[in-house]
From TrEMBL:
Gene Ontology MF term list: dynein intermediate chain binding; dynein light intermediate chain binding
Signal peptide: none
Source organism of this protein record: Mesitornis unicolor
Protein name, UniProt field: Dynein heavy chain 8, axonemal
Domain of life: Eukaryota
């Protein structure tokens, strides 16, 4: 029982740390007003990397051994652990999925950054078709919050491109 108590203490510390990570990942992002859409992809890539690292850690042999010992001891802390393990898996899947979908827009981000307003407008219909495809098929990114953020960033990029074009001309 002494060993079980020590292991439960360790797992409780992990639970607190993981909860903190999950809470921080759900907080509103503070971004510059003129930030472009490539920042959205970068955000989700960082988030995917963080949650994948966390998943790797949770699936390590050390953690698995501790969890199996606590399972054998029928520890009550495992209920919280399993719930957090599921939440991390969902967050990792969301980030991975969002990166996959946002990569379909990546070709437009480069085009829009370097284009003239005329050539940029030629790509708007296919860009919007791709955004529509993401909205219709993504299980995670099809929220109004995500779409609003993405469209705002696309608009920012278009405005920045036009400003640059006007200043050069």
């Amino acid at each position: 029982t002494e060993v079980t108590e020590k292991l439960e203490e360790v797992v409780i510390i992990w639970i607190k740390q993981i909860r903190q990570i999950l809470v921080e990942s759900e907080q509103m992002r503070r971004e510059a007003d003129d930030i472009g859409p490539s920042a959205e992809l970068e955000h989700w890539k960082k988030r995917m990397s963080s949650f994948n690292s966390l998943l790797d850690e949770i699936k390590s042999s050390k953690v698995k051994k501790i969890i199996s010992i606590l399972q054998a001891a029928r520890s009550k802390t495992l209920k919280q652990w399993k719930e957090l393990d599921g939440n991390i898996t969902v967050a990792a899947n969301e980030a991975k999925d969002n990166v996959k979908y946002l990569y379909t827009l990546d070709k437009f981000f480069g085009l829009f950054a370097k284009a003239s307003p005329v050539t940029m407008m030629e790509h708007v219909p296919s860009l919007m078709n791709t955004v529509c495809m993401i909205y219709c098929t993504s299980p995670y990114y099809n929220t109004s919050e995500c779409m609003t953020s993405l469209l705002l960033k696309i608009t920012n990029q278009m405005i920045n491109t036009c400003k640059t074009y006007l200043c050069e001309g």
